[in-house]
Amino acid sequence: MLGLNQGLYTVIAVPRRASWRGRVAGGAGAALLWAAAWGGASFLDHHVDLANQAMLFVIASVVASIWLSAPAAFAFALACMLSFNWGFVPPRGSLAVDLERHAVLLAAMLAVSWLIAGLVWRLRAQATAARDAARWAGRLQALGEALRDSAEPADQARPVSEALAELGGAPAALMLLHDELPPADSAEAVRVQGAIDADERAGLWLCLRQSQSFGPGTGRHTEQPAWYLPLRSRGGSHGAALVRLADPGSASEICRIRAQALCDLLGVALQRATLARQSEAAREMAQSQGVRNALLASISHDYRTPLAVILGAASSLQDQGERLSASQRAHLATQIVDEVRLLSRMTDNTLQLARLDAPGVTLRLDWESSEEIIGTALAHARRFDSDHRVRARLEPGLPLLRCDAMLLSQLLDNLVDNALKYSTGPVELVVRHQAALPGETSAAHVVIAVRDRGAGVAPADRRRVFEVFQRGHAAGAPGAARGVGVGLAVCRAIARAHGGELRLRPRAHGGTSFELWLPVVPPPAEAAE
Amino acid sequence: MMRVLLVEDDRELRTTLRDALALEGYDVSTAASLSEGLALWTHARSGPDLVVLDLGLPDGDGETLLAALRRRESTPVLVISARQADGQKIRLLDAGADDYLVKPFSVGELLARMRVALRHRGTALKPALTRYEADDLTVDLAAHRVDLRGEAVHLTPTEFKLLARLVRSAGQVVTHRQLLADVWGEEFTEHTHYLRLYMGQLRAKLEADPADPRRLLTEPGVGYRLAESA
């Protein structure tokens, strides 16, 4: 602790060097004090004894020590004593001292002045150190918060390196590992903040690999003109810092401790980011595994039923064809055609879901009009909607949508198909413009809703219906439609691939509204005639 | 008798389609690969009247065959594609294929597309289709006149050019790129938002319910199709 305190006084706590203006003002203040003491002593001359006059000069030197530096305060105290001796102590007008009568007085005067100047100096140094420590703590806290909030701590390398440069008094540099420690030193594996030469680079790699600090005061490679500090965390080092020292001879322990604390702060943040990346990768892998399993389950379950119908109808035609009536044959053929269309839709959905789930999927984005997208959905629906149950309603003045028309068409086909299957009443396609989401800071949206008056989705199922291979309870009922196992899942995947969302909302008087929320992108300038 | 060249690598589908087309009175020759199709095309004394071309062929790109066909004649080419081959399908349409069908399709759909394609056969040599009549809409390109329910409809020059381009390929898909190049110019082929705007205006003038069009049909992600005239 003692050594630490000494370091504190010698390096950190030296008050900032005063400007020449400050020095002149301090000197002038001291001169004024001296003049006041001299005046006071002259005024009291012959009224009081010499010891009382001496006190005036002691007070002057003590007060001046509040702002003067220690050597200046000591010199001022000496000057006060000497001038008092010269002006007031007999024989006056000389520095000669009557040893028997005044030597002790003058010595005590000087000793008290110096002692108090020393104490004041020490007090000031402690106050400065405390201020400095508080400032540093604030800075460390701010950096810690910045690192905590940053998804990519490597982006905070610059402020950390600036703080290190301040500690060392010369430009600092950082070397950060991108990921795992490579078996051999390689420039690709790290990111370097600040300029370093080949020796410094080698030193940083050594520091990183050994997770140990080098340089003055560390007990290792103390001849170096800089500190090499590892960016440590519990799992090892994630980089190393080079703190160049302006004056390696007087580098203090406290500075190095602070620099190491800063480096460790960055090291822990880097470790946290690495772990977050690894867990994200693991989560993605588990998710893609989950989707694959769900797709396999969907194929094995959903595909068997239409295949069974097709095989049944086709084999009946094959084996009994001649004995069947013309209308029976036509019925079987229609069954085959219908089931094949269903299988085709399911295949499209399953393939699309697998495609959208793959990393780096690209959409064929283009400017599309809501009117055309709805028109296409209506045209497709008309093939299965002999009763004209599907109606569309569009708000006027809708903006163009930035989307993949084929995907959006697939989404609406699925939703309309579902609505037709699971309800008997009218099905509405409603498109409206939503200026901004209430309570959120998001941009404007276009909302495309597919509304039916069916039995609705039970509250417990509202989240589940979007999962792969889930159907509402109604699906299990006799006569319910089959084969929508991946339908809603692919709809949601399509919505999300567009930066939008697919929501399910129960309607006030029964039925369901599936709402596709698509963010509005500012369209390009309109065409001139 | 109309001669059809069917290029399809799947044996079952090839046989089924051949039989179905033969039943409709077409003279069908089949090829299982691009090279075979190309050989049939080059060595035949007179080319087919129509080519039905599958995209998923074992020996490469349908574009090679299309290029070879286009070098000699304007024989209509009907592209059959799986849904995953969207990009290639549009490239072929842009390169001059006449229409497309996505697998699986019914024989009825194939026959309907073939009829339209054959009707347009040779449009590059013969005078192009200049008149379109469907229900209560009449478009006379030569007279520059559009009538709806017996009354003249005023179209802006761009709207008319757009409609005229669709009329010339009535019943067939016209890609975004083709429309933009023919109506606005080659440098505008990426400006699909022009198309959305003017198609919207055309629908407002020519459709009873623009949100449920019966004439100016959208082929999502591909282009537009003017419903086949009655």
Explained architecture:
- The complex is a heterodimer of chains A (529) and B (230).
- Chain A has 529 residues and is of the alpha+beta class.
- Chain A folds into four domains: 2-140, no CATH class; 152-276, Beta-Lactamase, CATH 3.30.450.40; 303-357, no CATH class; 366-519, Heat Shock Protein 90 (2-Layer Sandwich), CATH 3.30.565.
- In chain A, strands 6-8-9-11-10 form a five-stranded mixed sheet. A four-stranded antiparallel sheet of chain A has the order 2-1-4-3, with helices on both faces.
- Chain A has 13 helices and eleven strands.
- Chain B is α/β, with parallel strands linked by helices.
- Helix content of chain B is 40%, strand content 21%.
- In chain B, a hairpin with a 2-residue loop joins strand 6 and strand 7 (137-140).
- In chain B, helix 2 runs parallel beside helix 3 (62-72) and helix 6 crosses helix 8.
- Chain B has helices spanning 11-23, 34-43, 62-72, 86-94, 107-119, 157-168, 176-183, 192-206; strands at 3-7, 27-31, 50-54, 77-81, 99-102, 131-134, 137-140, 145-148, 151-152, 173-175, 216-219, 223-226.
- The mean pLDDT of chain B is 87.
- Chain B starts with a strand and ends with a strand.
- Chain B folds into two domains: 3-119, Response regulator (Rossmann fold); 131-226, Winged helix-like DNA-binding domain superfamily/Winged helix DNA-binding domain (Arc Repressor Mutant, subunit A, Orthogonal Bundle), CATH 1.10.10.10.
- Chains A and B meet through helix 10, strand 5, helix 11, strand 6 and helix 12 of A and helix 8 of B.
